Amino acid sequence: MSRVDWDVRGVASPAGVVRVPGDKSISHRAVMLAAIAEGRSDISGFLEGEDCLATMRAFQAMGVSIARRGDQLVVDGVGRDGLQPPAEPLDLGNSGTSMRLLAGLLAGQAFDVTLTGDDSLRRRPMKRVIDPLRLMGAAIAGDDQGRAPLRIGGGARLAGIHYDMPVASAQVASCLLLAGLYASGETVVTEPGVCRDHTERMLQALGAAVTRTGNVVRLAGGQSLQGGAIEVPADISSAAFALVAGAISPDADLVIEAVGINPTRTGVMQILRSMGAAIECRNERMCGGEPVADLHVRGGALSGIDIDPELVPLAIDEFPVLFVAAACAAGTTRLRGAAELRVKESDRLAVMAAGLRAMGVAVTEFEDGIDITGGPLTGARVDSHGDHRVAMAFAIAALRADGPVVIDDCANVATSFPGFETVAGQLGLEVAVRTGTSA
Ligand code: S3P
Can you state the subunit structure given in the record (predicted)? Predict the structure, then answer.
């Protein structure tokens, strides 16, 4: 497998107008729902990152015609019962979203299917979807530790359940709603904290009745979806790198265009603002059922804060780069209630703590969080452990380091942010890419 390392230097202040790629969560859902809808869907703004391409290829392997036409992805929906058995196990690469959502969508099909992925994905917890899917009547099994490969037996008769989710996970809630489409009766999911609600929004946009009362979501089984135009906004999780680049660079003046600001995703802006960052939403509008704005960020002085644990699910993917903001702030930033970060693409608490320490930052790690005390950053060599968001977070740290930051194992940046190296130029970074072969 080819290996990619980066040498990153900060050379200028972030300035001007940047665009970041389409939202990863929404792109996955767009392909999945369009594939099982009736008729054609035209998806604009689709993220052509490896994770979403893994979802796309999975549906192509199940007989769905999906083609690029101009800057749109055109999906010819096969209807709720039109998927065909794939000839081989579906390889979902690095993508937890693909695996957990597909587990639900495929649990009610007539055919057997196996879901697998790369080393990182095969280490991630899948019992959180296996257990409730079994309660619905699914024939699904992982290995003896509840990890992938997941084998799903066809022909199961699913029945709706009322499920109180033990962790606030949009992937689990979405998995159950997708299984619920194929179940008899009603599927009801109670969320213990706010989760991203893109699945509900898109199900509604494609004609399904899904209702929410507070933290309880309900969907009646047997509903069909109708394809149509689906617009994917820019990903706030990718915009987060630009937001932090702006917030930590004293002379920055940057606009990030057409970013999704769904309130279940804006924890990063709330946290940065409480640290003192100047971030404004301009030109707010709706785009395909999702709120969107141009984000304007200016540099300034940041202060350490105690992060409200209720914001954790709303900023779950942004903590690697928020830790970099904390390392550039005056005083200590404290995060707790974030044990989920240990089971993402890497153990993001341990991996970020190690890299920040290598850069001279004072860090104390806790089982469910971290304390970071801001100070000068030194150039260093850090290991991303193949985690896209860790790699990009350390690239942003180079803006404030006194020398180059050498980041190992950056190939997976292409899972969520293809072209990051180019956008990084607009953020005032020079990224030299070294490729080789890894064991
Ligand atoms: C996602 C939900 C989050 C997030 C992941 C994408 C989604 O995971 O970390 O990157 O698209 O539903 P959890 O819901 O498991 O926290």
Answer: Monomer.
Name the 3-class secondary structure at 193: coil
Q: Output the residue whose Cα is nearest ligand 1's atom 15.
A: 169
The verdict on whether 317 is a catalytic residue reads: yes
Compute the distance from residue 354 Cα to the ligand 1 centre, in Å. 24
Q: Which two tokens stand for residue 9?
A: 């230097």
- What is the DSSP secondary structure assignment for residue 226, as one 8-state letter? B
* pLDDT tens-place string over residues 339-398: 999 999 999 999 999 999 999 999 999 999 999 999 999 999 999 999 999 999 999 999
Domain ranges in the chain?
Answer: 2-22+233-437, 24-231
Residue among 23, 34, 87, 89 nearest 64 (CA): 34
Do 2-22+233-437 and 24-231 fold alike per CATH? yes
What SS3 state is found at 337? Answer: coil
pTM > 0.85: yes or no: yes
Name the CATH architecture for the domain at 2-22+233-437.
Alpha-beta prism (3.65)
> Does the annotation place 134 within a ligand binding site?
no
Ligand 1 near 317 CB (within 6 A): yes
Does domain 24-231 sit in CATH 3.65.10.10?
yes
